[in-house]
Write the structure tokens for this entry.
Amino acid sequence: MRVELIYDMDCPNVKNARAQLLSAFSTAGVSPIWTEWNRASPDSPGYVRNFGSPTILVDGLDVDPDNEAPSASCCRLYPSRSGTLSGVPEVERIVSALSNGIANLPASEAANGKKGWRMALAAAPSFGVALLPKLTCAACWPAYAAVLSALGFSFFDYTAYLLPVTVAALALTLISLGWRAKARWGYGPFVLGVAAALTHLIGKFVFDSNFIAYAAVPTLIGAAVWNAWPRMVAVKSCGSCASSDV
């Protein structure tokens, strides 16, 4: 959702417009993030000159569409519900525009957070493979056979396949951590996952240490959760501008 405040530097209502925006964001339960455009600035897009000061747009739409927006360099006036004129739009109008903007968000945007958790769940099989023990102890086989039989599975010695299967499963997890990492938390989760995966492989297949191998699994899970945790993308935020006199 794109929120914009268009203003003239000499307009006395800009500070009040920022205060109205903060109040509306708070009421709508949305983080106070918006972009400000100075109509006189050469860096501002051309369409901002079609609106008076101050004007608030939500996804390109005026929060008060029924009120004609003058294109001249002048302060804009807004009729209130009581019939008086004000230099800023009413909070209720801004809240309504914000609510409509939230409702019109594409389904793909609303599902971004869920997508991250689905990626984390996709890595779950590798955690199960990592927890599989090496069947190097012949005395333990009857116990394994009894457990598998109770679950309805036939017992077989999978030790010969455990290393390639574990490597393949961990590789899939690392791919999910590295895929489009910059759009989430950067490469921190990926690096942590690589360290955990190498520690697990070395502990399990080089030193034959269950302690080292299994201690690395929670770290790998932590990397997957970190990678999937929702992150607010930073854009130009003017929430702090509301207390300024710019």
In short: Residues 20 and 103 are 21 Å apart (CA to CA). Confidence is low (pLDDT under 50) at residues 107-111, 232-246. DSSP finds nine helices and six strands in the chain.
